[in-house]
Q: What sequence folds into this?
């Protein structure tokens, strides 16, 4: 069964510090992985997807098939990065449904 | 980006009543819509996958007679919580896309409080 795991419920860093939000997945096929972000009182929105290999708001994520990981990184955290971050896997054999990890709350302190 | 709306944004109802939540794709035709439930500071739990014109596919443990889903058009899906009880109080979120591999867009969510 596909599963997405985010081991950290809360990650607290100071402004300017590097950030790494961990995500591990279990899926037997080729994974389709995403990071979604939910700012306070806002809807969930796509941050980035692994196939695009782009950097959004300074965040990057690299798929490591050997470690079955898709960690989200940013070299210098900003206060406006404070939000809930969800790693998700899409199963295109089942209509493209997204299965989410437990979520990590990132708190960036001034 | 594309927009998905939900109505109502919040609803309070008495125990035993039924509540209908609408999910609309405003500027694209959604072949598939999804319904999630989210508890405070917790993840989104997928409830069901809704395809236009066919029966919804429910995730394990989700009562299909309790959570009725109708996807009658390419722009509208509804979730009806029947005979609601306080434990059904939650944040319900829908999402939609217009084809496998396409970006998934999320609605703003509906907060349900059952008294």
A:
């Amino acid at each position: 069964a596909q599963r997405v795991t985010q081991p950290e419920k809360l990650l607290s860093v100071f402004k300017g510090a590097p950030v790494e939000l961990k995500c591990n997945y279990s899926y037997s096929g080729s994974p389709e992985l995403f990071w979604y972000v939910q700012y306070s009182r806002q809807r969930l929105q796509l941050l980035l997807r692994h196939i695009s290999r782009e950097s959004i708001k300074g965040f990057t994520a690299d798929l490591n098939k050997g470690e079955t990981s898709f960690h989200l990184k940013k070299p210098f955290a900003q206060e406006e990065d404070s939000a809930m971050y969800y790693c998700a896997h899409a199963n295109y054999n089942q209509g493209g449904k997204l299965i989410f990890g437990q979520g990590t709350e990132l708190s960036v302190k001034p | 980006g594309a927009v998905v709306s939900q109505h109502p944004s919040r609803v309070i109802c008495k125990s035993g009543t039924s509540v209908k939540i609408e999910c609309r794709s405003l500027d694209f035709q959604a072949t598939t819509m999804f319904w999630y439930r989210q508890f405070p500071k917790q993840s989104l739990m997928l409830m069901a996958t809704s395809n236009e014109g066919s029966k919804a596919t429910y995730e394990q443990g989700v009562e299909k007679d309790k959570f009725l889903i109708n996807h009658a058009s390419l722009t509208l899906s509804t979730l009806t919580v029947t005979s609601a009880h306080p434990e059904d109080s939650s944040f319900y979120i829908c999402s939609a896309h217009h084809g496998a591999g396409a970006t998934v867009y999320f609605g703003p969510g509906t907060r349900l409080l059952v008294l």
About this structure: The CA atoms of residues 2 and 27 of chain A lie 5 Å apart.
